[in-house]
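Lecture notes, unit on protein representations.

Consider one protein chain, 483 amino acids long.
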Amino acid sequence: MLSRLRFLLPALAGFLAAPVFADVKPHPIFTDNMVLQRDAEIAVWGLADAGEKVTVTVGEATATATADKEGHWKAKLPASKAAMKATFVIEGKNKIEFKNVAVGDIWVCSGQSNMEHTNKSSYDLDRVSAGAKNPNLRLFTVSKRTSTVPLADQSDLKHFGKWSESSPETIPGFSAVAYHFGQNLQKSLNVPIGLIHTSWGGTPAQAWTSNEALAAVEELKYYADAGKIAAAQFEKDKKAIGPNVPASLYNAMIHPLLPFGIKGAIWYQGESNAGKAYEYRTLFTAMIEDWRKKWGSEFPFYAVMLAPFHAGDADGVTWPELREAQVYATKKLKNVGLAVINDAGDLIDIHPRDKATVGNRLALAARAQTYGQKIAGSGPTYKDSKIDGEKVVINFDNLGAGLMAKYQTINGFTICGEDKYFYPAKAVIVGATIEVTSEKVPKPVAVRFGWKNYPVVNLYNKDGLPAVPFKTDDFPWTTMPKK
């Protein structure tokens, strides 16, 4: 008996060591109820046995791929038109047929707490929920996690998330800004819209930027160094890193989405970087360029300008400097826009509850700039100025149907002379311009508008969109690095 057992043990050991044939497993971004990006090559990827042939079918298009020695495979299908219902099948040794799949436009929705803020924490949930049933608006929330390295292997992505249709049951816990943005787009475009919500409250932009991108910019290298130190510490003690560590959220909550096809991105963040607003000019543009490089697409990117908030000092200027850094990105990079919410802030709450205004203004920007609809997508934006005696004449772009003030007196303008001390100013609409004066400044040098943490302003275009805060000067920023 013992001799017989000795004979069987090697054979049994060999059997146990043999590879176990596994089912084809698509990346967890692919689930029932999902949306695939229209009018672009469709990438589908996942895991299988090494050398296994995998066939992917979307509608009438089919593509095959062979798993490499590590079991990874990726198939690429030709572009498809928008479709409310599409077949989506993945087949290897097993067959997976996804249900209720659509083809339309997908938007990544990211940032910190104001993007994470849910519908149930916003205004009028009952009314919003009553109109939430929309089978052509699909929602996906990426689970929160951090990583010291980009997560490219889906074995690290357990509980990643799943797609669902918009309904009174699914929207209360979903990002309110993203939801209102998506509903507006879907209703106006009449195509399926998919929203991938990936955000984390209280996090800075450097956490959402890859170490590679941070290391490539001289003034941001110290963030990359900090990320490397955190990674070395993790290797030593295996304690999870926090969400504020540079690149930690890019690695775990953005990189795993690649190369999933998307139409564009919306972004609500900046509060955590306001203390270094001047640096944000470089950081924010680097992050946008990083995402675009990783996706291989110059996709449109729309950000929310920070809402009015006291931030410790209602008359302070760190938040307007951060807002100016956001404007800087729209000038330096193509296809970047802003949603201005001067009228949707809260003096004492950093999380204003009016998220419908935010989402709808993001949608207006996208509809005008990305989809080419003949609507106003932005409020008046500063173009240039001219000093004419005792007054400064301001010219604007994005006038829409013309300038207007919601009340008789225009609020929020200040003016200074050579002493650089800004006084409240009188502003008057004259045709397509605004003339700014002050009895205390007979020889004006510069004008600022909405230049406070909590500005009280009422300048709009006649299309109902608020003017973008601005300054005509190039005086040093208060958040410039100290020399």
